[in-house]
């Protein structure tokens, strides 16, 4: 009987460790970065505005095109500047048909020099499709380096795994003219 209790207590201890390491009820879904800097800054007063299209694949076709391979996508936004802050005021996720699926930025985010932000589309999400994408809109107080925006996709199924990344494409860039008297 003592022998069975030894294994029972070991199994219970292992279960307790696994539960303690798992996500908590207060974990923010879709936001793996813990230290986001939110701001109430008026972005209309900024001097530079950019919009970036970023391809994201929530799944890809395999074999004869009838099976789909689910992927987890991580949107990465990086401020490559050493001194200037970039403000991210819109992050929208669209499906293959251009339908808005999710808004990731409810408030403007400050991206400090050399800082990165990450946002996740879960592997179980099946609405985006092979043509899903993000539209990221950013601004800055003066001319800065464009942020580096990429999506990294990864998926595993049985013994097969796949990973790749896509780069964002700057679709719009606008600088307000300075008025001098």
Structure description:
The structure is a single chain. The protein is built from 1 helix and 13 strands; from the N terminus they run H-E-E-E-E-E-E-E-E-E-E-E-E-E. By secondary structure, it is mainly β. The chain has a single domain (32-175), classed as Sandwich (Hypothetical Protein Tm1070, Chain: A). Strands 1, 2, 6, 7, 8, 10 and 13 form a 7-stranded antiparallel beta sheet that branches. Strand 3 (59-62) and strand 4 form a beta hairpin. The longest helix has 20 residues, at 2-21. The chain is elongated and about 60 Å long.
Detail the topology: elements first, then pairings:
Elements: H1 2-21, E1 37-39, E2 48-55, E3 59-62, E4 67-70, E5 72-78, E6 86-94, E7 100-103, E8 108-111, E9 116-121, E10 133-140, E11 148-157, E12 160-167, E13 169-175
Antiparallel strand pairs: 1-8, 2-10, 2-13, 3-4, 5-9, 5-11, 6-7, 6-8, 6-10, 11-12
């Amino acid at each position: 009987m003592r022998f069975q209790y030894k294994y029972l207590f070991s199994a219970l201890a292992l279960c307790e460790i696994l539960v303690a390491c798992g996500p908590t009820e207060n974990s923010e879904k879709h936001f793996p970065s813990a230290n986001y800097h939110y701001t109430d800054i008026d972005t209309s007063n900024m001097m530079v505005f950019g919009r970036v299209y970023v391809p994201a694949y929530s799944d890809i076709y395999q074999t004869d095109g009838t099976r789909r391979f689910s992927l987890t996508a991580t949107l990465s936004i990086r401020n490559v500047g050493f001194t200037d802050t970039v403000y991210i005021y819109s992050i929208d996720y669209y499906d293959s048909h251009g339908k808005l699926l999710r808004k990731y930025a409810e408030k403007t985010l400050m991206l400090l020099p050399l800082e990165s932000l990450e946002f996740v589309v879960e592997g179980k999400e099946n609405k985006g499709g092979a043509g899903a994408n993000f539209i990221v809109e950013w601004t800055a107080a003066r001319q800065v380096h464009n942020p580096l925006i990429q999506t990294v996709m990864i998926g595993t199924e049985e013994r097969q795994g796949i990973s790749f990344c896509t780069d964002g494409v700057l679709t719009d860039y606008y600088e307000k003219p300075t008025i001098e008297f």
